Amino acid sequence: MVVESKVIASRNGMLLIEWVDELNLPRRNWITDTDLFVIDRKGDTMMVIGPERGYPYGVEWERYVDLQTTPVDLCRELRKHGIWTTADARSNPESVRNALRCVYGIDVGVVLRLSKQLESSEE
Fold this sequence. Notes:
Elements: E1 2-11, E2 14-20, E3 26-32, E4 37-42, E5 45-49, E6 55-56, H1 71-80, H2 86-91, H3 93-104, H4 108-122
Antiparallel strand pairs: 1-2, 1-5, 2-3, 3-6, 4-5
Helix pairs in contact: 1-3
């Protein structure tokens, strides 16, 4: 696949490049200059083939967090939190955030616990 990529950093003959994948998720990989097939380059932006061939940078959070919800679930939680109208949502964004936390069942603590587990498994 040919994608627009951007050089984020360079270290020891490796480039950290960023692109957006087919799921519209930003990705970053470390890749050598020799493994990177550049079609066109303008400054730090380039059109490349196969940026996914490099070494992944960062956690693929989507592999570890399972979100199971429906629009009806969201509607139920919004109403439980007093969000019935657009005016309610605009005047009380904290209640909207709380409803989203409830419906998705995820908060900062989940991400931090997952981070700790992943770090422990790397040792």
